[in-house]
Amino acid sequence: MRPLLQIALDLTDKKRALEIANLIAPLVDILEVGTPLLKAVGVEIITSLKQLYPNKLILADTKTMDVGKVEAELVFNARADMMTVCAAAPLETIKAAVTKTQTLNKKIVVDFIGVENKLERGREIVSLKPDYFNLHTAIDVQQVKGKSFEDLDLFRKHFNIPLCVAGGIIPEDIPKFMPYKPAIIIVGGFVTKAKDPKSAVIALKKEIERAL
C-alpha cells in the first residue's frame, strides 16, 4: 500500500506557509500546521488551509501534553482533520484527546518524540486505540545521534496500529524505512527550506515510487 505523504509547515510566517502550501498542495495528501506555525498564528491558519484546500487532510501538530479534550475541540472546531498528542503526556490526557477525536469522527496521532522506552509506552497506550503511532526523531536528537528507523520494525512486530515516520527525512532515507511499511511519511525542512518546494516534493514522490 502506498503511504500518505505529509508535509509539515514548520514555519512561523503565515504568508510563506500559505505560499508553500499553494505550490505543493496538489502533490501531497496531508498538510500539517506545524507546532511553530500553530503557536505563531493560532488556529485560524487551520481554517484558512481547509478553506483553500477542502479536499486535503489538515493536521494540527498540537503535540498535546495536557487538556486533551480542550485542545481537540480547539483544532477540530477550526476544521482540522487530524491532531497530535504526545506519548509522553499523562495517559488521562491521551485518553481525553483520543475520546474527543473519536466522538467527532476525526483522526489522532500519538507522537513518540522524546520517549526513551517507546515499546513500553506503546503497550500502555495501545488499548486507547489511537489512529496512528508517530515514530519521530527530534531535530536536536538527530544532530547528536543521527537518524535511525529501527523502531519502525519493532513497532510493526508488536502493534497493529498504523505507523508514521518523521524527523529530518530526505529522499535518501526513504529506501531505509519503506520495508517497514509506514502509513504516513512526514517531511518538513527538506521541502519548506528548499528553493523550489514543488521540485522537492516531486523528488520525494519519485523515491517513494521506486521503493514500492
From TrEMBL:
Under catalytic activity, the entry for this protein gives: D-ribulose 5-phosphate + formaldehyde = D-arabino-hex-3-ulose 6-phosphate
Q: In which pathway does it act?
A: One-carbon metabolism; formaldehyde assimilation via RuMP pathway; D-fructose 6-phosphate from D-ribulose 5-phosphate and formaldehyde: step 1/2
> Could you tell me the EC number(s) of this protein?
4.1.2.43
Start and end of every Orotidine 5'-phosphate decarboxylase domain?
A: 4-204
Pfam families, alphabetically?
OMPdecase
SMART domains associated with the record: OMPdecase
Provide a GO biological process annotation. Answer: L-ascorbic acid catabolic process
Q: Which UniProt keywords apply?
A: Carbohydrate metabolism, Lyase
| GO molecular function (one) | 3-dehydro-L-gulonate-6-phosphate decarboxylase activity
User: Hey, which family's this protein in?
Assistant: Belongs to the HPS/KGPDC family. HPS subfamily.
Q: Output this protein's name.
A: 3-hexulose-6-phosphate synthase
Q: Which organism is it from?
A: Desulfofervidus auxilii
